[in-house]
Amino acid sequence: MSTIINAYDWVGAAMQSLDNELHWENPEPYKVGCQIMLAWEEYYSTVLGPTPKKSPNLSRAVARWAYLYKYAASHASYIYQLVSKSAELIDLLQSGSRPNITCVGSGAGSDFLGIIKYILKSASSSDPQFLLLDRYDWGETRLSWRTLCPKGIAFTPHFRQIDISEESDWACWQEQLQNTDLFVMSYVLSELHCIKNKATPFLEWLFRNARSNTLFLFLDNGSCGAYWWFDNLANSNNVRPISRSYQDRDELGILIAGQLGMDGDDNKTKSSLLKPYLSIVKNVFSDLRLDMRWPKEESIVAYRISIKR
Questions:
Q1: Whole-model pTM over 0.85
Q2: Is position 153 within any domain?
Q3: 92-151, pLDDT tens digit by residue?
């Protein structure tokens, strides 16, 4: 299998699927651009702000577009790189079996795309069963994936719209979750940190009831406390680290996270994402905020690859 997917191509297709809802044909595209900018600012402040008080709201198309544009491609690339460097994850995906992979908080599908890229690029014969959980229904992104999936390849994820802060939402899926071979948590704990008390019962149940040898892949911002939350959950439920993103502490005793950038294959196709929106990026985002001009390419991250003992 020689097909290699590029994160920007897949994310670009998902962005285009939202165009009808965003009405770029509006005679005032600057107004649409401002709405996107405000949606991104709101997301950023709720995740990385000094005192976030609520979890991000991605129910609006404009907010999902902003997230896809800014973050989705880099997060998929990071997941691909982490998978391709982990002997344990490679063994799971090269086994020729059908491992069950549950992606927690995976509406945009970056973790799914990162793993699929590894499978396609490595010519793995594995055929994983994906379960994607998210509070919001990113139906347009999943429809766009089908248009880019190589002919004859049926990587169709199962999606469940679940609010993990509400036990009534997730309790009925306990049996299916217990059959998971790999849990992926990509940039979700930082989104839930401000409602930690409500989200902890689900995460405690998940860590406690995971089967022996279940793998965990955690990836998040290195500048927030999400990794401490993951570490506390893991340590109290016999989930042990195999690989971590840092070894040393800084002068204040704070653990230092590692840095990741875009995979080379993905960087080559950045223009395919930006081309349909070049005038908007040039004329709108450049006037509003430097940070929104380009998708995120590299960042300080915290990651863990762990196993349940």
A1: yes
A2: yes
A3: 999 878 899 999 998 888 899 889 888 888 877 778 889 999 999 888 777 777 666 666
Q: What does the H/E/C string look like for the chain?
A: CCCCCCHHHHHHHHHHCCHHHHCCCCCCHHHHHHHHHHHHHHHHHHHHCCCCCCCCCCCCHHHHHHHHHHHHHHHHHHHHHHHHCCHHHHHHHCCCCCCEEEEECCCCCHHHHHHHHHHHHCCCCCCCEEEEEECCCCHHHHHHHHHHCCCCCCCCCEEEECCCCCHHHHHHHHHHHHCCCEEEEECCHHHHHHHHHHHHHHHHHHHHHCCCCCEEEEEEECCCCHHHHHHHHHHCCCEEEEEECCCCECCCCCECCEEECCCHHHHCCHHHHHHHHHHHHHHHHHHHCHHHCCCCCCEEEEEEEEEEC
The number of domains in the chain is 1
CATH code of residue 60: 3.40.50.150
Using one digit for the tens of pLDDT, what is the confidence trace for 221-256? 876 778 889 999 999 999 999 987 654 333 333 333
Domain membership of residue 92 (yes or no) is yes
In a domain, 157, yes or no: yes
**Domain coverage including residue 293:** 7-308
